[in-house]
Design goal:
With 529 residues, the chain is an alpha+beta fold. It contains ten helices and 25 strands. Helix 1 runs antiparallel to helix 2 and helix 2 crosses helix 4. About 8% of the residues have low confidence.
């Protein structure tokens, strides 16, 4: 590919100065003309004249417009950064690149398949990857992406296409060359749903805006070759792209709940319910993606979790032991409390590369993850444990152990936070705080997915990775009765730390943050937007 040299940059500055002399006054438009390397868009035989204010043929009966025409149409649009612009006639992509330099979101349609195939690949290769390209009939526009702030037509139309005018938002601007042999540059300012203002400028000469007559004449042939043509175009009947594009975001998650929901819809013996998926469980992982271009994407996984739970239980009040009660009077109660807190911060990032030119896409890449976690348990009791905790029973004095709730405290247990038992104890937990856990892992992956609908795919992913995890020392406190004479003390105990190193395989991110003996094989669904 031809390089962009200091000489070329100097020629562009001269071109911008020439266009300013010819009446182009917008600094932003002139800057865009000065930035886009026009010589890269031309056949090698025309490169020496690339920065002259003339048009050149680009194949398929089309031309790259004069720089003045490009600048003039662009200036008429009165673009603002972030505007959503529909371009009819991608051509070489030169006008598209100028629009991108203006900071707008470009949706561009090209009628000529040969030009479409070349330009959608060429522009990203020189740094203009943000535009969305479509192969189709310019007269029909892109209703699925409407409304647009601005519409620019880069071919001559005999009349105003109503479909395009309907896709322009109220207050929006359309710039279109109107006429047959010679066109009049026309600005349409849409003032209402069915009204617009029309302003005419000078005469220009464009190639004609073609309707999709060729496709209509090949209707019978298309019936027998629909599958192969669809795979080549990779756009829906509404003009929606099937595959992900530059700047797209995506969310990927386990597809099993969704497929189960759909399957149960046809099963009268099974109660159907809304699909659900767990966040970063052993088999349900959500992954976000940001596409750099059609062939690569950044991946990210974030989990920030904090829980603070309090469980309560009522037990008898030991202070009432030995007291005679007459019905309906009863022994009093006191409250035991168990407080559990848990914090997790997990971050993962990676990159994937993609292969494939049809709905069936393969991909591969790598992730790196780090995670930290901590937890703490605290216990509060209604009955006091003390050395002189005595009661009178049948006229004699005896030492009593306090009535206490014993809780399930394993976070992985089904009964976590529930009452295990209630009884008299000589030892009970006061607090339990293990050391903080830190982990790091790297993972390579390879996957495949099939796009069943525009921007929606079903696939599977296989990974192989290693990780290291360590937990620091912690401490616990236990209240105990013991000794002679009887004493009560709160004793401090040390909790040992631990470490773990693992190397294993997974399916569909079996357990991204942490360790799992093996992953869970399942399908996953990915939504792009």
């Amino acid at each position: 590919m031809e390089k962009d040299t200091y000489r070329h940059k100097g020629l562009r500055r001269q071109l911008a100065a020439l266009l300013k002399e010819k009446g182009i006054s917008s600094p932003e438009v002139l800057k865009a003309i000065e930035t886009v390397p026009r010589h890269l868009f031309l056949n090698s035989s025309f490169i020496e004249r690339a920065y002259e204010d003339i048009a050149f043929p680009i194949g398929a009966g089309q031309t790259i417009s004069r720089p003045h025409t490009v600048a003039f149409q662009t200036e008429l649009l009165k673009l603002k950064r972030g505007d959503k612009v529909l371009e009819i006639g991608t051509g070489s992509g030169y006008q598209t690149s100028v629009l991108i330099e203006m900071g707008v979101k470009v949706y561009s349609i090209e009628r000529q398949k040969a030009l479409y195939d070349v330009t959608k690949t060429f522009l990203p290769s020189i740094g203009y990857s943000s535009a969305k390209f479509f192969y189709g009939d310019g007269y029909k526009g892109l209703p699925v992406f409407a409304p647009f702030d601005k519409i620019i037509i880069t071919a001559g139309a005999p009349s105003i296409p109503n479909d395009l005018l309907n896709q322009l938002k109220v207050g929006g601007i359309m710039v279109i060359p109107l006429g047959d042999t010679v066109q009049t540059m026309t600005l349409l300012n849409k003032t209402g749903e069915n009204t617009f203002e029309k302003i005419e400028y000078g005469e220009f000469k464009f190639v004609p805006l073609l309707e999709d007559k060729e496709k209509k004449s090949l209707l019978v042939f298309s019936f027998f070759t629909a599958t192969s043509l669809y795979a080549q175009d990779l756009t829906s009947k509404k003009g929606e792209p099937i595959l992900p594009e530059a700047e797209d975001w995506a969310i990927s998650m386990n597809a099993d709940p969704i497929l189960e929901f759909i399957g149960n819809s046809f099963n009268s013996s099974t109660k159907n319910k809304a699909a659900n998926t767990s966040w970063l469980s052993s088999s349900h992982t959500v992954i976000g993606k940001k596409f750099i271009n059609e062939k690569s994407a950044y991946r990210f996984m974030v989990r920030i979790g904090y829980v603070n739970q309090t469980f309560k239980n009522m037990v008898v009040n030991d202070a009432d032991n030995g007291t005679a009660f007459n019905f309906p009077d009863k022994q009093g109660q006191v409250e035991d409390k168990y407080k559990h807190s848990d914090f997790n911060l997990c971050i993962g990032a990676g990159k994937e590369w993609r292969r494939g030119k049809t709905r069936l896409q393969g991909y591969y890449g790598a992730d790196i993850m780090i995670w930290i976690g901590s937890s703490k348990d605290e216990f509060h009791y209604g009955n006091t444990m003390s050395a002189d905790n005595t009661i009178s029973t049948s006229g004699s004095s005896t030492t009593s152990t306090p009535t206490t709730t014993v809780w399930y405290t394993n976070p992985d247990s089904v009964g976590f936070g529930m009452v295990d038992s209630v009884g008299s104890v000589t030892s009970r937990n006061v607090s339990y705080k293990p050391g903080m856990t830190f982990g790091i892992g790297v993972r390579g992956f390879i996957g495949v997915e099939y796009f069943i609908l525009p921007k929606i795919s079903i696939g599977a992913e296989y990974g192989l990775g290693l990780g290291y995890q360590m937990s620091g020392k912690g401490k616990s406190q236990v209240q105990e009765q013991g000794g002679t004479p009887l004493q009560v003390a709160t004793l401090d105990y040390e909790i040992a730390g631990s470490s773990k190193f693992g190397f294993d395989t997974d399916m569909n991110q079996g357990r991204i943050f942490g360790f799992n003996n093996s992953g869970t094989g399942s399908l996953k669904v990915t939504f792009h937007f």
